Amino acid sequence: MGTCQCGPGYYGHLCEHACPPGLHGPLCQLQCDCMNGASCHPVSGHCICPPGYYGTRCHRVCEQGTFGEGCAEVCDCEDDALCDPVTGRCLCSSGKTGPRCDIDCRANRFGPDCAQTCECANGAECDRRNGRCSCMHSWIGLSCQEGGPPRLTSGSSRGDSQHSNSL
């Protein structure tokens, strides 16, 4: 019994095996030239791109605003928020959150996707984008904990007059 003459993309005594990943062509002797985890067709060697990539070698990330297999899906994010080229998940800019990045951060939260907590004290307001505090009244400092309203010292309370009335 003779051996079979395998076509491109197959090997084995009866040509029963497809080329292993990363190889293609006659007797699976050619190396695939794909990037970003792409597989290649065992016969032709054409790259089969994973979601989020395109190009002959799957070397390009989906253009902004598209995602998924073949970059065929359109992102649905507000205010020009970027989206993940693989999943389409909106990547919220500072001060925004929600599936479409269309919700302002709630009080005391800031940053991309509102993931950080503000450190503002004494009634100060927190900027939803960068977390900077806007101090109230006479408070100062990064978190508005320095200064404050003037206080009477213990030696200057009423009735502690050191002046005498002598005639």
From TrEMBL:
<keyword id="KW-1015">Disulfide bond</keyword>
<keyword id="KW-0245">EGF-like domain</keyword>
<feature type="domain" description="EGF-like">
    <location>
        <begin position="1"/>
        <end position="16"/>
    </location>
</feature>
<protein>
    <submittedName>
        <fullName>Multiple epidermal growth factor-like domains protein 6 isoform X3</fullName>
    </submittedName>
</protein>
<dbReference type="InterPro" id="IPR000742">
    <property type="entry name" value="EGF"/>
</dbReference>
<feature type="disulfide bond">
    <location>
        <begin position="49"/>
        <end position="58"/>
    </location>
</feature>
<dbReference type="InterPro" id="IPR042635">
    <property type="entry name" value="MEGF10/SREC1/2-like"/>
</dbReference>
<dbReference type="GO" id="GO:0005044">
    <property type="term" value="F:scavenger receptor activity"/>
</dbReference>
<dbReference type="InterPro" id="IPR002049">
    <property type="entry name" value="LE_dom"/>
</dbReference>
<feature type="disulfide bond">
    <location>
        <begin position="6"/>
        <end position="15"/>
    </location>
</feature>
<keyword id="KW-0732">Signal</keyword>
<keyword id="KW-0677">Repeat</keyword>
<feature type="domain" description="EGF-like">
    <location>
        <begin position="24"/>
        <end position="59"/>
    </location>
</feature>
<dbReference type="Pfam" id="PF00053">
    <property type="entry name" value="EGF_laminin"/>
</dbReference>
